[in-house]
Amino acid sequence: MRVLRDRPQRRSRSTQRLAPGRMPKYILLIGGPGAGKGTQAQVLREKLGLPQVASGDLFRDNLKRETPLGRQAKQYMDRGELVPDDVTVAMIRERLRQPDAARGAVLDGFPRTIPQAQALDALLAEFGGRVDVVLYVQVDEAVLLERLAGRWVCRGPQQHTYHMLFNPPRVPGVCDIDGTALYQRDDDTAEVQARRIRVFFEQTSPLIDFYRQRGDLVEINGEQPISAVAADLLAAVEGMTAV
Ligand SMILES: [Zn+2]
Fold it and tell me: Are 31 and 222 in contact (CB under 8 A)?
């Protein structure tokens, strides 16, 4: 079985690797900053009952609770070093052991590199599983930038947010609710966002190729309305279980 899986193959309706009626257990969700992954992970959680296991959330949670793994990660971060993959893998392992992940999980944020993908394979094998499907929410670089760089916040105490394209204020530069001036957070400037987006594509394209080669990748058009993206994601997952 394992040998066959490593053979490059294209996904098609006739090559379902899951037994009929068996739900995919581990789903990997990949999408750039602003691709709407958080929203879509929530849809998958509601429809499939699988929790979202996002590496960023695990980090924040372990740091906040000052767990042994959180303290370990912090030592590296304090030195300005990258947290080694085995620390991240250990956090994911611990999370997957929780009862709510017994039926599987939607993984997000890890892996970002091929060595990390291999580490994830080894980890999921411990749970008797594998990455059953990789859902790539595809959004063009320019569209991501448009989505992210259009965010403005008011200077009022409630920090109302606007988007120049999707939710503009009635008067340019002024909050509709409290009349204070709008500004962009440093993180929201076009330059910072453009860099984030570029790093994502540079990092992720080898990973996308890796999963495509294995026949695990399903590409979803992330430029559609949210509900259409959700429908495509669910159809991709349900298509796997069809006979
Ligand atoms: Zn306001």
Answer: yes
